[in-house]
Amino acid sequence: MRYEFGKNWSEFARRHVTDERITTACRCLLDFLKLDDLRGKTFLDIGCGSGIHSLAAYRAGASRIIGFDYDPDSVRTSQMVREQAGSPDNWEILQGSVLDRSFLDKLDRADVVYSWGVLHHTGSMWEAVANASSLMKPDSVFCIALYTTDIFIDPTPEYWLSLKQRYNRAGAMARRYMEWRYALRATILPELRAGRNPLAYIREYGRSRGMSYWTDVKDWLGGWPMEFAGIAETKAFCTNQLGLELLNITAGEANSEYLFRKKGSTNYWDGIAGRRTEMALDTPFVHRGGQAWIAYVPQYLPEADTVEEPRRSRLMLCEDGLPLGFAHAPHSQIEAYGGSRYSHWGDSLIFSTTDRSDPNTNGRRYSIYLDAGSGSES
């Protein structure tokens, strides 16, 4: 059983790939990579789907783009998007699987190896991550997004895996019912309870990542095969098994986004790290309760999250120099679950350690810096 991802992306590409969404996708890509553009860089889009990430890389000035997908409908959709962009000579689309070593061996290595929300749908996620990382050059960056177990607490990952199987077995009417039921519980009722217009949320959804609300609902409910990966689990696998170094992470939504490079390599990120002002947190840390600890950072009060802007803070927390990444977490979840969650609220940084240990006695170093956003390469 496999979900027809390509048919969903085909509908999205025909109806929703607008200049605004392309601009949003391009901005999100560059923001995470901390680059102004991709000029002079080759871009490999693994599981290219709708083609919007490849198109974003093209708009960002990549010197060469190669996208490939296992699903023939996704390949056709990406080809359609490429044609709409004028069929540029430096953009190639192939059909192939990230699990097929003979196919991968024929590909050129790329400066940016990219796979957003794909590798957990292969049926062999860690093999797919390892194979994708093998397409890096010595100085490449490796950007992946994986569904995160840490987010799915209630309902649990097991619930969603069961629901996805039921969705894929259902007929068209039953699927439509499940989509609306999900939208009601996940979006419409929460927005109404918060005094907001849920229809406005759905209309504005594309501005967050350049996607479509209903396309993502279908992709989420239908996505099968499917695996989840914890943040600590992903860091450990990529660091210990693949020899990679974590550069950047964004968590707190369904997909956690990771940026790696090879250990000991040098690339544009050295310039970013060299200009960053990292400050050690003052100890001792105050135990808030459960897994939560408090560090006081009154100098960053103007940057803190608020009720009106719950994801405003750009403060990044590091453990032994590596970003924890699970920012803007609900305080109750920090206390209950720990596991790299943190929140910058008022004059305080409420946080948990990666292994839920006491930060006063675990021998690790905790520091902070302000995330500068894109445009950081000189």
CATH homology superfamily name of the largest domain: Vaccinia Virus protein VP39
How much of the sequence is in beta strands? 15-25%
Rg on CA atoms, Å = 21 Å
**What is the element string, with H for helices and E for strands?**
HHEHEHEHEHEHHHHHHEEHEEEEEHEEE
Q: Would you give an account of this structure?
A:
Keywords: Methyltransferase, Transferase. With 378 residues, the protein is of the alpha/beta class. The chain contains 14 helices and 15 strands.
State the main characteristics.
378 residues, alpha/beta, Rossmann fold, 2 domains, transferase, SAM-dependent_MTases_sf, Ribosomal_L11_MeTrfase_PrmA
How would you concisely characterize the structure shown here?
The chain has 378 residues and is α/β, with parallel strands linked by helices. The chain contains 14 helices and 15 strands. It has two domains: 1-275, Rossmann fold (3-Layer(aba) Sandwich), CATH 3.40.50.150; 276-370, no CATH class.
Q: How is this fold's topology laid out?
A:
Elements: H1 5-16, H2 19-33, E1 42-46, H3 52-59, E2 64-69, H4 72-84, E3 91-95, H5 101-104, E4 110-116, H6 125-133, E5 136-147, H7 157-169, H8 172-193, H9 198-204, H10 206-209, H11 213-222, H12 231-241, E6 244-250, E7 255-262, H13 269-275, E8 279-280, E9 286-289, E10 292-296, E11 315-319, E12 322-323, H14 331-337, E13 342-345, E14 348-351, E15 366-370
Parallel strand pairs: 1-2, 1-4, 2-3, 4-5
Antiparallel strand pairs: 5-7, 6-7, 8-15, 9-10, 10-14, 11-12, 11-15, 13-14
